[in-house]
Design brief:
alpha+beta, three-stranded antiparallel beta sheet, 5 strands, two-stranded antiparallel ribbon, Rubredoxin-like
Length: 85
């Protein structure tokens, strides 16, 4: 069995969306904003490196859930502020 390349979980530098790619790719397309990002560690924030595709997929799901929760908290806080003003 040959060694497979690790997966990287990273953030789009334009919109902050998270996705995973195989290490060694030169670029990746952001599925949210369409930005073709160069996979240069100096230009892209890498959140996780793993050999398991399943672990990469789970990390993306967890990050997206946390981001949605944070947006919801911000929305609720903003709604309360508007009512009080």
């Amino acid at each position: 069995m040959g060694s497979s390349k690790p997966y990287l979980v990273l953030l789009c530098p334009r919109c902050g969306s998270v996705r995973y790619v195989k290490e060694g790719q030169k670029t990746a397309l952001c599925l949210r904003c369409g930005y073709r990002m160069p996979l240069n560690p100096l230009k892209v924030r890498i959140l996780l490196r793993t050999r398991s595709r399943e672990a990469a997929t789970e990390a993306v799901k967890k990050y997206k859930m946390k981001a949605a929760e944070a947006r919801e908290k911000t929305k609720k806080r903003g709604a309360r502020t508007l009512r009080l003003a």
